[in-house]
Amino acid sequence: MFGRRRKKSEEPEPGASDEFETEADDGAEGDAGADEVEAEGEAKRVKLPPAPRPDGPWDVSEVSEPETGRVNLGGLYVPGVEGMELRVEVAGDSIVAATIVLQDSAVQLQGFAAPKREGIWDEVREEIASGITQQGGVIDEAEGPLGWELRAQVPVQLPDGTNGVQVVRFVGVDGPRWFLRGVISGQGAVQPEKAGLLETIFRDTVVVRGDAPMAPRDPIVLKLPDDAQMVPDGVQQDTVEEGSRFAGGLDKLQRGPEITEVR
């Protein structure tokens, strides 16, 4: 299960009392003080600048020819690989996410605006974990090939009406004024060792934040490729009623047109 130390801003656990804290011995007070310092340090880490990205994902300013070997979706340049399906997904009238399907695995990519000098992935992980656990899911936080990630078992309703569990991996990287989130599903989530190509696609994605003012966490809007071959699809994705807006394929996004890339 997902577990973390309680932060200073959180409410004390049920059953705790001021009387108990007053009567605690000096050693307990020392432990509490250490916990408070540690919690403060944890809160400060959330506000640290984005970590270096020596292996990507890339900002458009870091790549001389972002269109080479990639599909231009406006806000994202997504690497193209042989036999992949590229599905764009919409929220309202805007395209906000792209899903790359490779055989029995998929990765959904979505970019968001972020503060100029502050990474948000640590905070976003907590939000996703909270939303999924409230729905009865199970979360495990682990350090994977793309850094810290969430591995989730999410309750879903199967096509036949019975209840089941979907296994997904949430990955994320902070960039300069943007945040890129990926949701890996299928065999790449069930057996992470088989997700190497999807992880490479995530790493080699180029993000175009743009210079227009955007509120932190607003989605970076995408567009259809100029030479897209469209296959209409009106299927509605599974949803989580009150999940985080960063929950990706579990959020209230409608699957849009599919683009089949054969390279």
Task: Give a structural overview.
- This protein has a 9-stranded antiparallel beta sheet with strand order 7-8-9-10-6-5-4-13-12, with helices on both faces.
- It is globular and about 50 Å long.
- The protein starts with 17 loop residues before the first helix and ends with a strand.
- The protein is built from 5 helices and 13 strands.
- It has 263 residues and is of the alpha+beta class.
- It has helices at residues 18-23, 26-46, 121-134, 187-190, 196-203, and strands spanning 58-59, 70-72, 76-79, 85-91, 94-102, 105-113, 138-144, 147-157, 163-175, 178-186, 206-207, 230-231, 254-260.
- Helix content is 20%, strand content 32%.
Strand order of the largest sheet: 7-8-9-10-6-5-4-13-12
Radius of gyration: 20 Å
SS class: alpha+beta
Major sheet: size, sense and barrel closure? 9 strands, antiparallel
Poorly predicted runs of 5 or more residues: 1-28, 234-263
Please give the share of residues in helix. 10-25%
How far do the termini sit from each other? 41 Å
Our estimate of the beta-strand percent is 25-35%
Q: What is the averaged pLDDT score? A: 77
Determine the number of helices (DSSP H or I, runs of at least 4 residues): 5
Helix and strand run: HHEEEEEEHEEEEHHEEE
Task: Name the shape in a single word.
Answer: globular
Give the tally of β-strands: 13
